Amino acid sequence: MMAMALTPAVVAQDFASDRVYLEADVLIDSQDEGVMIAEGNVIARYEGRQLTADRVIYNLETQKVHAIGNVRIMDPDGTVRTAEELEVDGSLSDGVAANFAAQLPQDAVVVARTAARDESGSNSLEYVIYTACPICEAEGSDPTWTLRARRAVQNAETQMITYEGAVFELRGIPVLYLPYFAHPDPSTERRSGLLTPTPELSSKLGFVYEQPYYWAISESSDLTITPKLYTNVNSALNLDYRRRFYSGDLSISTSMAYDYEFDSNGDRQFTNRNGRIVDDPANFTGELFPSEEKFRGHMFAEGEFEISDVWDWGFAIEEVSDDLYPRRYDISDWNTPRGLVDTNPLRLLNQIYLVGQTDNFYTDVISYNAQGLSATDDDGMFARVTPSVYANQIVDWGDYGITSLEGTLAVLDRSGGDDTRRITTSADWQNSFISPGGVVLEPMVRVRADYYDYSIAETTTSAAYEDSQGRTYGLAAATLRYPLIRRGEDLSITFEPIMTVAYSEASVDNGILPNEDSAKYELDHTTMFEADPFTQQDLLETGGRIAAGFRTTFSFDNGLTLRSTFGRRWSDETDPAFSYASNLAGTQSDYLVGGSVDFGNAFSFATNMRVDDDFEVQRTESRMTLNWWRMSGAASYFNIGEDVSFDETPTQRQAIALSASFEVSDDLDLMYRISRNLETNLNQIQAVALRWSDECSFFQIGWQQRQITDRGIGDSNSITFGFGFNTLGQVTSGNFD
Known about the structure:
With 737 residues, this protein is mostly beta strands.
């Protein structure tokens, strides 16, 4: 026998990529027995994988590594495995272990009496304990949840962990026995299989059960198939498809159901001879016409793709078979903004667009059409835009100012109304000068030319006709600002008087040409000091005008900031094209007031008001956020006076919205949300929920109410609940946010 002992910290001399690298306090090379023994602080490395132990015996012939005492293996992906004793191959990967433990991704831990790993990378474990909760060594302190099993297999090919004879425990108490159970390996990113279900109890749909199946079609695409089962109405099917291309992304969400139109109780709806919905069919004495049972559904899709560093193109599709389909089937994302342009929440848009942008150039080309969801909407009166073009080029002359060149094109077509085609070109020049005393002068000059070609549909009082006409426009303006700043030890104050003087003329008066884009324009405190406040094209402000007021800022060293804006606008002539609601009627506007309080993330409040000559508030908009102590939330409020409402019969002129969360304890949260129409004293939505959560699990229960009624769909209540365990999955109600 020949042996050689080397000390201290001797390393193996063979560093070939297919050999194990050894480092230890003592290294014994026993050539007769064909082994190398390392003792004391042993470190073995192989291709990024590292093993540490008290003692290691390396068989030079079989290339097996037998490690004893405080064994620890760290894989290249960061996974840590420990054991009292194990035997692995030369790659430090495959083998068997006793008293095995492993630290997996997402803070998951698995412990087993014995473990074996084969060439495929799969692990077989006996008498297993699995959890993703922090483990406290204090006596009597159990993890929130654990999964114990007689046997478990971590399959490297399917990326699933399966259990036989499993018992699920909460705080050490057995609550569920599972002869067989499986869940995805925490190390997997995506794989096909059943996702966690979504249950709900609804007064409209009954008991709801949604069971999604996720299909990983390829590395760049997937499809989620979700059957939705209801006890009050027929079932539905949802499909959600996503695909990523080298140049962009595509997403499609669609659903389908075969059913009749139903009300808030899930009952079939009936109409009378005039097509109006009958609220109480049981007591109706006339002839009833039942709603038709047929296929109904929706499709929402969006895609955006890069053509080059400058150009992108995209599209958005929003289609429903019935106006009330999204509300009947609780389609949660039906008013989510998609594409380049957005509209009000009760309309859907189909659009395709092209966008180009550089540092000093921007253009977009878009075509779109709308679908109305209100009972009074007539889709034939909505314009099909085919297309709308906007282009802007900025030229910076340095000390000589900035020139902006702009062009627009709009082609609007209606199947049941007026058609308009408009082309516009304009050029602006503006500059900024600061006097030695600190007065800021900002002059501006604008010239513009429009051409309209339009057709007006026949009405009960006038015949249909077509016409075309050009219009020119010129504007000269200047803004004077005098910011005064005073700095103290704890406070800085800025007071800025501001005045804008402007004069403009147009060759054609407002009201003669079609007004497509400025029908609901209103001057507010954000545009009050603009020489030309219109971002739209069809209406123009002419004559002489002055806007005057001030802005203030109080900045405290403790982070508190107070801001205010006050002003008014005067003009030398009255334009009948502007209604009182626009705040441009007559020769003077209402007073415009804005103010805000900002205290960092802890608190913010902002409000703006429109006040008339009698000091009556015509419009108020306020919003607030709070994040203090155990409370966080946001609130908004608006109140629109009857005289400044653009709608003849507005359904909502005063409303409040609130969302809040209160941390009852470190693990328990109480959440509340409401959106209420203060005109009708009805809740668009009201929800309250209680949620308990820790590092590895959550439980929640809530209640949700809707009271806004539209053609028999409205007043409904839902019980929402859910629970989840990290790495195992979750069960939640889809309607609770």
